[in-house]
Amino acid sequence: MxxxxxxxxxxxxxxxxxxxxxxxxxxxxxxxxxxxxxxxxVREANEWATGHIPSAVHLSKGIIxxxxxxxxxxxxxxxxxxxxxxFRCALVADSLQSMGFTEVYSLDTGSQGWxxxxxxxxxx
Length: 124
Fold this sequence. Notes:
Blueprint: H1 6-16, E1 20-22, H2 24-32, E2 38-41, H3 45-48, E3 57-58, H4 64-71, E4 79-82, H5 88-98, E5 104-107, H6 110-116
Parallel strand pairs: 1-5, 2-3, 2-4, 4-5
């Protein structure tokens, strides 16, 4: 497990008080039920290349605020974001909420939690 800086962890802890999170099991159910929502992988390109949750679109943390409106027109559209461990995506979820997106969820354990739950990754 990565050792994160204490200020970063404090920031994430405070951020998680303002956002909604979703578990890997809940996300899998949404995918299996073919619910309509956007799924964004906010990791870096080299992380995306190692595998991603099926149906995800890559839009890294560094550019998602700049580019999200090119993909998500309606700010009421459901959005799920994830990273590796659930920290960076929490920050992204908070940022998107600040931009006016109203139904944003962060995958609480990131792609690692997805894998730990027994779900596979795609490399397409």
